[in-house]
Design a protein that fits this description.
Layout: H1 3-17, E1 27-31, E2 49-53, H2 84-87, E3 91-95, E4 97-101, E5 105-116, E6 119-129, E7 134-145, E8 148-158, E9 163-167, E10 170-173, E11 178-181, E12 184-187, E13 192-200, E14 213-223, E15 228-238, E16 241-251, E17 260-261, E18 265-269, E19 273-277, E20 280-285, E21 288-297, E22 301-311, E23 315-327, E24 332-345, E25 349-358, H3 363-366, E26 378-389, E27 392-403, E28 418-431, E29 435-447, E30 460-470, E31 473-474, E32 478-493, E33 503-517, E34 519-525, E35 528-543, E36 557-558, H4 563-566, E37 572-573, E38 581-593, E39 600-611, E40 631-637, E41 643-652, E42 657-670, E43 673-682, E44 686-698, E45 708-709, E46 721-731, E47 736-747, E48 751-761, E49 767-777, E50 781-784, H5 788-794, E51 805-806
């Protein structure tokens, strides 16, 4: 080591740190260089450079100060602050040997390392010119910043502005989990860089072999500020085969939104044949965007699909429109329209609009994936406005239906009435010593929809009032709620009914008492400490019989048999029918809860209704003198490791048979491993079984916990994991497969391939089959038709292969 530099450094160290004593060992040498006068601000900026040097064997050993300034290795690199605070950050040099001039420059050789804020440079030789703020590195150069890693033989960099040039680098971008090589890489600033004669891939960047996929380009411009990468004269190759070429190809650097053409998609189905679509995404503003997708079908011709989304301070919505100017199979134009809008008017007013319409009755069969409704043959549209006035809420609504009928009379459907309009008000208020009063008044104009299967139903209007008064006693361990309520309605019909009346009215009172308790104790089940609850409940209901057969039924229907309906005061939904009953419903539920989190690990319950008198108004439309109702049994548990069980059963004591049952079981022994089975029975109507799965066939098993690290894939090798996914729904009554999904996913680490076949029944002897194929290039884009939503919607417990993966391990300064 240069003895003169050593003496100068020690002198500066003493002047700066109050002359600490020196002893044998590692030395910490400090000096305070200054910037040239033409680059100084009005107030003089000072930059401290600290260098730790260890002399070669046999050389002079320096000492370290006793009062504590020493270089400490750290796995956490804090990004440098901006402005003057960033300029004042120290530049830290560490090497086997070091020489330099105070306030001017320094040269480090042998395992040299330079740090400044979040920037780390390693090389065989490093030099730093303080006046130019320029670092030059040669020999095994490695630059790390914000998780990005650049390696190569030679580089120079201005630290503060992060400007410089890297020759023949290999680079890795943490934000995408991908990287590549380049002839040169120019850093323009902290956000932008340009690579020349570059490649880009998430495969094989560690030298494991030729990458499975690679994007080659004359230049690649990276701009993290606008989340965009642009490759000029780009060619994308998959296992050496060119699959995409473009004079300019842009791609996002993260999951954030970015305008531009999206990768083309390819779909095949038995109705439309081969379809090719090229979406264009328009990021209009942070709160608005649109996607326009021109497409061509081999059988149907050209089409345009559009999606517009917006989120304003007081408005939000989404519009989807698909238009086919001329369908080559149907020989006519076709369209579908879905609109959703919501507007708030201050803290009290809310307007909502929903429109769901298609061009013709066959649309649901020809485009089974094009209708998002849960009832694809019954499409609803409505507008509603709600306004609060203190304790009152007023509302208005208009509701219409579109029915998609078939030519087969046995499959035609009856739709709900249209409400044109529906106007009402409701309130719930507390008076005096805990009295709770509720009231609802409403006017409806009911109209039979066009194309309805039952053309004999009358149009008419109804004015109804629902009221109640109760005195709840509520505590954490029990509740007791006596209530007196009434249901009053007045009808006016457009046409006389068989009883020759066009006007009718009725008032039906109900007395009910609801009581429930919650008891707890600590217990042990299957070796687990749990908190067990016992929750008995009783509901007494007394509603007198009122003749309703000669009254219109606009919106009433029998409730499904479940825990909520068996403990309800009326066995009908809607207003037009009220079940007469003098009954007592009893039930008990027990739960096992985790004492720490409160999570439920098991639920068992039973409930049954006892009738004190004959019931004449029933959902089955026939009177019953049976005292005991069907018995409801239900339960679920996740106590057994890796297993989830769920069941509900409706047992008839009169016929000694199970009337309805649903039972499901799911086994999930690890991530991306799940098998589920479901059995459904409705006596005299349906009986179905369902099997769903996601399971690895071969390859490295996924970890049982924690994130998955990104694997590289070398060309020519088959070291990935193959998964099978699917769901099959089989009708035991009809002895046929109703709906099914079968597919495979291959995860090669840096690319994922998915092939999924979906079959949807559209009739007793009709079905539509779709083939969905997708190639996901990790860190770049997805090509093909996305089947992920289909898999997530249909396979219980399905997990996307990329959800739990991280881009790269944390940076370790000792690597």
């Amino acid at each position: 080591m240069d003895n003169r530099f050593y003496k100068s450094a020690v002198a500066a160290l003493r002047a700066t740190h109050r002359a600490p004593r020196l002893r044998a060992g590692a030395a910490l040498l400090g000096f305070v260089p200054t910037l040239p006068s033409h680059r100084r601000p009005a107030a003089r900026r000072r930059l401290r450079v600290l260098a730790a040097a260890l002399a070669a064997a046999g050389g002079v050993q320096a000492a370290e100060p006793e009062d504590g300034i020493r270089l400490q290795p750290s796995t956490v690199l804090t990004p440098p602050p901006r402005g003057r605070a960033g300029e004042a950050l120290p530049v830290i040099l560490q090497a086997r040997s070091l020489r330099g001039r105070p306030d001017l420059d320094a040269v480090a050789e042998g395992d040299a390392e330079l740090r400044r804020g979040g920037i780390v440079i390693r090389a065989d030789r490093l030099s730093y010119d303080q006046g130019e703020d320029l670092a030059r590195a040669t020999g095994h150069v490695r630059i790390t910043k914000d998780g990005n890693v650049y390696s190569g033989p030679e580089a120079e960099l201005r630290l503060q502005r992060f400007e410089g040039l890297f020759k023949s680098p290999t680079y890795y971008l943490a934000i995408t989990g991908a990287g590549g090589t380049a002839q040169s890489l120019e850093f323009l600033d902290e956000q932008r860089a340009v690579a020349t004669q570059a490649t880009y891939t998430s495969c094989g960047i560690d030298g494991s072999g030729a990458p499975a996929w690679v994007l080659s380009a004359q230049t690649v411009r990276i701009d993290t500020e606008i989340n965009e990468g642009v490759a000029n004269d780009a060619v994308l190759r998959f296992y050496g085969v060119p699959i995409l070429a473009a004079p300019s190809l842009s791609f996002p650097l993260s999951d954030a939104r970015k305008s531009g053409w999206l990768p083309p998609s390819l779909a095949i189905d038995s109705k439309s044949g081969v379809q090719v679509a090229v979406p264009y995404y328009w990021n209009i503003a942070p709160n608005r965007d649109a996607t326009f997708t021109p497409a061509v079908s081999a059988r149907r011709g050209a089409s345009l699909d559009s999606e517009v989304r917006y989120l304003e301070p007081n408005h939000r919505g989404e519009d989807n429109w698909n238009y086919i100017p001329y369908d080559g199979l149907a020989h006519r134009p076709r369209f579908s329209l879905v609109m959703q809008h919501e507007s708030s008017f201050g803290p009290y007013g809310l307007a909502e609009l929903h429109v769901d319409r298609v061009s013709d009755d066959d649309y649901w069969k020809d485009f089974p994936g094009g209708i998002a409704s849960l009832t694809p043959r019954l499409l609803g549209s409505d507008f509603r406005y709600t306004r609060r006035f203190g304790a009152w809420t007023a509302y208005g609504r208009a509701e219409a239906w579109q029915l998609l009928q078939t030519t087969d009379p046995t499959t035609r459907i009856i739709a709900p009435y249209q409400r044109m309009p529906q106007v009402g008000a409701r309130t719930v208020q507390i008076f005096g010593p805990g009295l709770e009063v509720g009231f609802e008044g409403e006017f409806n104009r009911f109209i039979v929809p066009d194309n309805d299967a039952d053309g004999a139903r009358p149009n008419g209007q109804r004015l109804h009032a629902l009221g109640s008064i109760s005195r709840p006693w509520l505590t954490p361990g029990w509740r007791f709620v006596p209530k007196l309520s009434f249901n009053a309605a007045s009808y006016e019909l457009d046409e006389p009914q068989p009883n020759l009346r066009t006007h009718a009215s009725r008032v039906i009172p109900t007395l009910s008492v609801d009581s429930a308790w919650t008891l707890e104790r600590d217990a042990h089940w299957f070796g687990h400490a749990v908190r067990q609850t016992l929750e008995p409940r009783l509901l007494y209901v007394n509603t007198p019989f009122v003749q309703q057969d000669d009254l219109p039924n606009f919106d009433a229907a029998g409730k499904d048999f479940n825990y909520e309906s068996i403990f309800s005061e009326n066995q009908f939904s809607g207003v037009d029918r009220v079940s007469d009953q003098h009954s007592l419903t009893a039930g008990v539920t027990t739960r096992l809860l985790d004492p720490a989190s409160g999570a439920e690990s098991m639920l068992l319950g039973v409930a049954q209704r006892y009738l004190f008198r004959r019931q004449q108004v029933t959902p089955a439309l026939v009177s019953t003198s049976q005292h005991f109702s069907d018995l409801l049994l239900f339960g679920s548990t996740s106590l057994i490791r890796d297993w989830n069980l769920d069941a509900q059963l409706q047992y008839s004591p009169d016929s000694s048979r199970v009337q309805r049952s649903v039972a499901s079981v799911r086994w999930s022994p690890g991530p991306f491993r799940t098998i589920s089975g479901t059995y459904r029975l409705t006596r005299g109507l349906t009986e179905q079984t369902e099997l769903g799965w996601q399971w690895p066939l071969y390859g490295p098993p996924p970890p049982t916990s924690g994130p998955r690290t990104l694997r590289t894939s070398s060309g020519g090798s088959c070291n990935g994991s193959l998964y099978t996914v699917g769901r099959m729904n089989y009708s035991l009554r009809d002895r046929r497969l109703i709906d099914s999904i079968v597919g495979f996913e291959y995860d090669a680490g840096c690319w994922i391939a998915r092939v999924v076949a979906e079959r949807l029944s559209t009739g007793q002897s009709e079905a539509t089959t779709r083939l969905l194929v997708q190639l996901e290039l990790v860190g770049l884009s997805r090509l093909g038709t996305n089947p992920l939503q289909v898999l997530k919607d249909n396979i219980p417990g399905y997990r996307v292969l990329r959800d739990e993966r991280i881009a790269a391990p944390p940076y370790d300064p000792h690597d």
